[in-house]
Every structure is written in structure tokens, then in C-alpha cells.
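Hi, here's the filled form for the chain we discussed.

Project: internal
Contact: R.S.
Residues: 171
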Amino acid sequence: MLPHKSGKILLGNRMQGLFLMANNTELALEEFKTKFDKYLYNNTLYHGTRISIDLYALVTNHGGVVMMDSEGKLVQLYNKKAGLESNSGNFAYLDMHKNLWIAANNGVYYIESSTPISFFDEETGFGDLSVKIKRINNKLVTGTIENFYTFKRQDELGEKTKTFYEFKSIN
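And the returned structure, exactly as it came back:
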């Protein structure tokens, strides 16, 4: 049970997903739908913590840690592809510096949420020597020795989700 900026309580259930509960005596539940509900279900939502008024960390048993904003949008996914040794997680702890500690089956992960760094390589669709990065028409574009790529945020989680896409033609 985590506080939500709406004044309600955010609840998570391994089998039924996320809900908001009114913070009064009625105890009425409303579904809190996200585009990654199926991912949370398939990877067994296990624990969560609130990082800030607009950010939550949702720990799964098989899919790593999902960072979600208060509107239910994906912010970041920390899993094996992102550098964790394993996708297993059991508990999340937020320290006084707003860094995240994840109790996992094979140890403890430490995620500096206050200074996040992302790395993109062949597994994320980017596989070339980058020589230039620029924002064009509100899109991040990077030029390489051989190609141009555009960055696309992950709207849905999945094993084949890429974040950089190669331009097929330049118009």
C-alpha cells in the first residue's frame, strides 16, 4: 500500500494488478490500468515503493524493476538487459538519498535513482559508433558512421522491445 498523489492509496496484487483505494471509510477499489499490466502479471509483481510524489518502483519476481510515474506510464525498466545480474526481486528499500536497494534471489542491487544513466547498444537497437546526437522536431536523433537512428520511448514492455530505430530512408 503506497500513497498516491491523488490522496488515494495505490495497491498491487500479483493476480489482479494495480488498484487505487479511496482513503476513507468506504474502501472502494478502482482499477489502475497501465500499458504494462500484462508484463507485471507475467513476471509476478511482488513489492513496490514510492520514490517521489510522481515515481514508483515496482519489483517483480521474474522481470526486474519497473519504474512507473503516478499516471501509470513506464519511466524505466531495470532488468537483465539493463545490467542486473538477474530479473528476480523480492523487496525494494528507498534510502535517505532516494537511492533504491533491491533484495534479490542472488544478492542485493543498488540503483542510484537520483542520477540515472542509460546505455544503449545492439540489444536496444543501436549498434554503431555514435558521432552526433541532436534533437530534431522533438525527436532525439543520433548519427553514426553508417546510419541514423531515432530514439523511441518504451511504451510497452517485452523481450523484443527496442529503443533505437534505424532510419529506413531520409526525407
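Let me know if anything looks off before we file it.
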